[in-house]
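Holo model, S-adenosylmethionine. Inputs:
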Amino acid sequence: MAGGKPRQTADWLAGFHAVEAALRHDGERVQEVIFELGRQDKRAQQLRELAAEVGVAYRDAPATYFAERVRADRELGRHQGVLAKYLPAPAGDEHDLLALLDGLREPAFLLVLDGVTDPHNLGACLRSAEAAGVHAVIVPRDRAVGLTPTVRKAASGAAERLPFIQVTNLARTLAALKERFIWIVGAAGGGMVSLYESDFATESVALVMGSEGEGMRRLTQEHCDQLIYIPMAAPVESLNVSVAAAVCLFEFRRRRDAPGVLSEQPRVR
Ligand SMILES: C[S@@+](CC[C@H](N)C(=O)[O-])C[C@H]1O[C@@H](n2cnc3c(N)ncnc32)[C@H](O)[C@@H]1O
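Output:
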């Protein structure tokens, strides 16, 4: 990437879950933990011990300090009397993606989100993607939410562990994946093949989901080898993107986990 990756600025993490996940999985990037003065309960004590174990400084601050932080950053949400200053790792780029693919010892399993803008949806997608064994989540750099504190909180630790790749040109990235024999399967309410009949679930595959409002862009759709739909029992217009992603990912996971499946020879395009 020309000019290298942009310099990261520190984010705030709020709440026990988010702070604990960062300490456990990305401790060297936590700069300090701040407890609300008077929090001496067992949970706070355990978190202090974890911070000490990881070598992260912690201190107490009055309730007014927490109120100020929340006022300054509306995204912080419920802090439960604990905040952490966190220097996030920069998101990966196209080169990181190719390096990651080179290092895989099993058929690639990727999630592509074409313009998801709601941080709660992205967080939920990351959480499900990690649980389903996805190797990386790919998003466009523009017109999509990145790894904000709200996303990190909703992802419950997955944002610190799962490779997150931001690309400048999603269509070009999909073309590059195809060159590496990765099938592109798009999920769309108007898809042609039922999720349960997709024959790409067990191969090197990138599952593409559309955005909340518009769905998948036309150019993205044109790169798909197959468009699948989730059969629905009632005439609902569509599912929330994170719900649809979880349904598709876990169906693919189920099929990939069948005995002997991932060891079979991959099909050639
Ligand atoms: C809220 S939906 C977008 C709705 C949008 N109006 C459209 O027509 O695509 C967000 C994304 O979730 C996925 N999705 C939702 N319902 C689906 C279904 N029944 N089958 C397949 N994918 C679905 C698709 O990837 C879709 O782009």
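The domain at 94-263 is CATH 3.40.1280.10 (Alpha/beta knot). The chain has two domains: 11-86, 94-263.
Archived with the compound record.
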